[in-house]
Design goal:
By secondary structure, the protein is an alpha/beta fold. It has 12 helices and 11 strands. Helix 6 links the parallel strand 4 and strand 5. 49% of the residues are buried. The protein binds pyridoxal-5'-phosphate (PLP).
Length: 386
């Protein structure tokens, strides 16, 4: 039984192929890429090139050289935001953003570099695209939108925002932390200029991996500079991609595993995985919101959400609820504010937060049934005086 329901934090379990790829790299290669002409160094370069090509294919990005490996999604978002904004610029973002967008923006605002406009969300965590468009100004240099909320699972209407960004020449940054690998994403068709994703959640790679995919023609300032193994005679950072944004030795064990995770997704198809997740979501939605004393936050229509469910039981603190789900039933969930305080304000669950159960690619009906039965048992305990 798989009672790990914290896939929104990082996915578990990962496919066997991911562990095998990490091990194979360590045992059979072990070298750093782009820093030697010997066989293993070239092999390491090939591992990275294959991973880039697979990621470009998964998201239909036209140029694999514009797939930048990062430490995680936070690092990708920092590179996108700080690489793009210029003094005097204005950024539009939403109330559903994670701290990995809120905090870099806050820092830039406090430094007097930029101004921002926060677009509100409704009680289900949904943004009205008209409000995003109304917030755009002549000096707007970035629109940042979280594709799926890590609190309520709400999907945002990116398709309705992107054309207006394109018309005005404003880059659109999509935080795909909760959608990459779970929802089909075609950056070209959707008109996404920058896509930030963790490698370690829905893409099934190891922790310590992430990607930023950038539309050809869009230039970014660097977040850090250093050795790239290229143009080593110059003390200036190379201006070509991907080297420009990948200073220092790569996380090759991580990238090897991520590449295997993406291959696993490509072979199954994200659309098919999404249909499967929709079935499990329907199971959750048919019961969880109807349990006595349970409040579920976020859409009840599967088309408008991903498998991230935030809920509370009346009379029980979310921290206590999370602890009891594990102690009494072995169910692993995440309690609190999930690094998204503004989202909790929008949903009316600030400051205590919620308990969050998030689905993974390996869950079965029986796992979801066990989660629902554990919550039901705790509602009974609560009604008897918790
Ligand atoms: C919506 C969202 N954005 C960004 C992040 C940051 O991802 P990472 O942990 O890979 O830095 C998360 C992580 O939970 C997230 O849910």
């Amino acid at each position: 039984m798989n009672l790990y329901f914290d896939n929104a934090a990082t996915s578990y379990p990962k496919p066997e192929e991911v562990h095998a790829a990490v091990q194979r790299y360590g045992l059979e290669c072990g070298a750093s890429a782009g820093r030697g002409a010997y066989r293993q160094a070239r092999q390491a370069g090939d591992i990275i090139a294959i991973a880039r090509a697979r990621l470009a294919r998964l998201f239909n990005a036209p140029d694999p050289e514009r797939v930048i490996f990062t430490l995680n999604c936070t690092d990708a978002l920092n590179l996108a935001i700080k690489g793009l904004v210029r003094p005097g610029g204005h950024v539009v973002y939403t109330a559903m953003e994670h701290n990995s967008v809120l905090r870099p923006l806050r820092k830039l605002v406090e430094a007097g570099a930029i101004t921002t406009t926060r677009v509100p969300a409704d009680h289900e965590g949904r943004i009205d695209p008209r409000n995003v468009i109304l917030a755009m100004r002549p000096e707007t240099c970035l629109v940042a939108v979280v594709h799926a909320s890590n609190v309520s699972g709400t999907l945002q209407p990116v398709e309705e925002i992107a054309p207006e960004c394109r018309r005005r020449g404003i880059p659109l940054l999509l935080d795909a932390a909760q959608s990459a690998g779970h929802v089909p994403i075609d950056v070209t068709a959707m008109g996404v200029d920058l896509l930030a994703a963790p490698g370690h959640k829905g893409l099934l790679g190891p922790l310590g991996t992430g990607v930023l995919i950038v539309r050809p023609g869009l230039e970014l300032d660097t977040l850090r500079e250093g050795g790239t193994g290229s143009r080593s005679e110059e003390d200036r950072q190379p201006d070509f991609w991907p080297d420009r944004h990948e200073a220092g030795s790569h996380n090759l064990p991580g990238i090897s595993g991520l590449s295997a995770g993406v291959d696993w997704l490509l072979s199954r198809g994200v659309a098919a995985l999404r249909r499967r997740e929709e079935e499990l979501m329907r199971l959750v939605l048919s019961e969880l919101p109807h349990l006595p004393g349970v409040s579920l936050y976020g859409p009840t229509d599967v088309a408008r959400r991903v498998g991230v469910f935030s809920f509370r039981i009346e009379g029980m603190d979310p921290l206590e609820l999370g602890r009891r789900l594990d102690d009494d039933f072995g169910v692993k969930v995440r309690s609190g504010l999930h690094c998204a305080p503004a989202a909790h304000r929008a949903l009316g669950t600030f400051p205590d937060g919620t308990v969050r159960a998030s689905l993974g690619h390996f869950h079965e009906e029986a796992d979801v049934a066990a989660l629902l039965s554990a919550v039901e048992r705790l509602t009974t305990v609560c009604r008897a005086g918790c």
